[in-house]
């Protein structure tokens, strides 16, 4: 279609025949009208674009017909010229609509920029074309003025077209065809204007050729399927559009000023037009500047709010909460108040994310924020500082009792479940409370840190409770930090070591296995309890390399004892495994490598896991345990009976051994209830074909009862304390001399 238009345009220029030119123009106009009507059904363009182009086509046909009719009657020539002006105005309006849609730009800024360019162009058109035309033209002043307005509007059209082309990252074929059509019609307008001004002498066929090609280019745009997405919103390129608008707008301001300075008015009319034009241009520039200043101020406010507000909940973020706390501390010294911070952490929030998804987690956080705002008095400021952590500031607090009352109200707020799209969810919170004390609170960060420390104390106390900060907590935190820091270098410094506790066959009295236990002796000689450093290692992730070292070290010890004849060749080694290790994707490979390097068969390794390991992330745990069992490693549940104690665990997971916890074994000799419970566990293990080991045996009577209950294996202080590897030979030798343990008559712990 575009090619046909180009061919007809070339023929028009070459033929130099007005009749032929008019015929081609009529054909081009009719085919455009038909194309617009057909496209409305086939491509379904935007209604505004379709109606605008239909109106433009209709006005162009009428104007062309009237121009031919009134060509010899100058008094009526203003009518077709006015229609041409209307065409340009409608075209400019339509382009502004498309630009605002596609670029997502603010309509006011686009409109004012276009107005500035149009006014600047009008000034140049007046000086270069319109005013000279008045001196030589036989047409009326009105006609000449309307043509000037048409040319000025054409400049506006050109500017908006440039924005559309250079500011749109999605330049579809329809955009290019529309741009070509507009550029061609503007070319025709300026050719006519230049010819009328007497500056150049051209045949009207050149302008007619441009108009004919323009109409066919518009038809090509409407035939193309991309016309339906012409007004779709598109992304704005950050550099070229802004720079392009800036350059064009600046030129529209500077060039008229230069022309005004270098050229003199020809008469009073020229002087008046110049003055009014520059005044209106200045007013448009003023409007643009005012609008830009307001837009920048609004943007700055939005940026400040965004920087200080949590995007999910709309609450103040950490930065703004620090500011609020700082202001509260400044006022506290003069008003005699005791600003208090409550640090809130949603308990087991990770479980919600893992089980229901992160969207549900976000919904929970929003619901928690709403609960906190509704539960607290207006004087309190609620903020979300990170993840599932919230902070509440009561700047007016005067006593610890008021702070505890607020904390109790928060706990009560979570008694009712949160209603989510995924269903009702119960949550609880651990709360740390810290009040301003001049002797220890120097700034806002100190107060927030104290509340955070107290919150962790509440978590350690069992969650869903409140803890009030005191100075002793700082010592504990400092000690924990010291342990955490030293733990990273413990392996490198060879401060970690293994000790082993023998496991015996109760009936035979033989040592059939060992359990590896970790100890940490720091360089200064101080001992760190496993109960203290193992949770830290688990939390920080250092348990993974430490566990890998312990596994290889324990198997190496077992191989050494077997080779030296210290123990039976089928003796086993039990090694505790943490959740972090089991969920490590490389753990199975680590186990396989340790077995290979130590030259120990896989069935002589027992990996001990707690019930909680399998509850936290059951799918990961099940996958890992199945892979371990596939290579021959056996799995034991440690401390059985103290956790969930679900029979489904024994059915779902590949478990081969139960270790009866010390808390049950300690009362088995005197407490009939404990004895009955142990009997039940042993009977259940027998029915499932599981091996059984009783932990924490400390008296002969306990061992005798376990033998009566048919528990096959045992370990504990009665048999042996955990001993270093180099002492295991003598320990096993002593145990072998004792013979059958149940026959002993008194407690003789080693």
Strand and helix layout:
Blueprint: H1 2-15, H2 18-42, H3 47-69, H4 78-103, H5 107-136, H6 141-167, H7 173-197, H8 204-223, H9 240-262, H10 268-308, H11 318-335, E1 340-346, H12 349-356, H13 358-375, E2 381-386, E3 389-394, H14 400-413, E4 418-420, E5 423-425, E6 429-435, H15 444-460, E7 466-468, H16 471-490, E8 496-505, E9 511-521, E10 527-528, H17 530-540, H18 543-564, E11 572-576, H19 579-582, H20 587-598, E12 605-609, H21 611-616, H22 618-630, E13 634-640, H23 647-652, E14 657-660, H24 662-665, H25 672-687, E15 691-694, H26 700-708, E16 713-714, H27 728-738
Parallel strand pairs: 6-7, 9-11, 11-12, 12-13, 13-14, 14-15, 15-16
Antiparallel strand pairs: 1-3, 1-6, 2-3, 4-5, 8-9, 8-16, 9-10
